[in-house]
Backbone:
């Protein structure tokens, strides 16, 4: 589905020489130097520039949130989406400060918001099914989500954008992400499930049990990434995965946020390993599974600020 070329290393020595010849001691800028090399590799230019950087925030609701595993109800997903498009959230401030355009995509929140033309409608339904009781969505829905995401990335590519950053919003999506992680990496629910935005011990144990129940229910159907996403995924996780693959296919830089976006990145890498070359990992979060994901992906995040906010701010 996605034809992604690995980045070329033909000019690595020349690029590294230019970095080394800057007025500084060798390696004095630490990770910024390896980042500069990666940017030049991906963009394939002697003096690469980031053009029209775009933050995409994907939002959707999760049926599993009905199991009382979060500190908030699904209503908060819609409230936060309205806050994003009204300009009142942390990600709005961050994007304004660093010069990113922000786009919010409704992938399937429970109650549609129809009065805001700036909200991109890519709805796959009114929230997923609770994955511990049924498949979250059909395999056809997964493919439809990939197609929608690819078209949105292509729109921005045609506008000249060469970097897309990824954020998300969806009450219950850390549970879905933990279930996907456990399914792909063959790990236990206990190793993957964390506190999300800060659940207490009782809800944490319930969350682990819910993920365990989902893994048991779907164990015979977790045959490939597409079926794992269908069984365990969220509409926003599906579309993030497809968008990451589409961006790499167009040789764009892909900036990965925290735990949930990194689970989408893991799924994308398992579909096409070459997508990894295009990924910049912005942050390691407080969520316990995130460090394990980064280790598996051999990724060194640029920041570790202990955030758990989401939205693309460098999180969970």
Residues:
């Amino acid at each position: 589905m996605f034809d992604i070329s690995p980045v070329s290393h033909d000019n690595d020595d020349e690029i590294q020489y230019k970095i080394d010849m800057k007025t500084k001691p060798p390696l004095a800028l630490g990770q910024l130097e390896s980042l500069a090399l990666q940017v030049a590799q991906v963009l394939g230019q002697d003096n690469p520039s980031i053009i029209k950087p775009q933050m995409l925030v994907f939002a959707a609701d999760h049926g599993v949130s009905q199991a009382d595993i979060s500190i908030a109800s699904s209503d908060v997903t819609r409230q936060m989406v309205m806050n994003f498009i009204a300009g009142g959230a942390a990600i709005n401030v961050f994007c304004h400060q660093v010069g990113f355009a922000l786009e919010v995509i409704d992938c399937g929140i429970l109650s549609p918001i129809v009065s805001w033309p700036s909200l991109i409608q890519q709805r796959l339904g009114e929230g997923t099914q609770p994955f511990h009781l049924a498949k979250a969505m059909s395999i056809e829905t997964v493919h439809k989500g990939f197609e929608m995401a690819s078209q949105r990335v292509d729109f921005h590519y045609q506008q000249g954008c060469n970097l897309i950053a990824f954020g998300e919003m969806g009450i219950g999506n850390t549970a879905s992400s933990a279930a996907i992680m456990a399914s792909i990496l063959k790990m236990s629910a206990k190793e993957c499930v964390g506190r999300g935005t800060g659940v207490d011990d009782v809800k944490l144990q319930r969350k682990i049990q819910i993920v365990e129940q989902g893994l048991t229910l779907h164990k015979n159907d977790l045959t490939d990434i597409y079926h794992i996403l269908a069984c365990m995924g969220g509409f926003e996780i599906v579309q993030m995965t497809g968008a990451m693959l589409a961006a790499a296919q167009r040789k764009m830089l892909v900036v990965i946020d925290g735990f949930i976006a990194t689970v989408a990145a893991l799924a994308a890498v398992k579909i096409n390993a070459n997508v990894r070359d295009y990924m910049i990992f912005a942050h390691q979060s407080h969520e316990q599974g995130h460090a394990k994901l980064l280790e598996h992906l051999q990724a060194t995040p640029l920041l570790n600020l202990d955030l758990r906010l989401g939205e693309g701010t460098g999180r969970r």
The longest helix spans residues 139-158. The mean pLDDT is 93. The two ends are 29 Å apart (CA to CA).
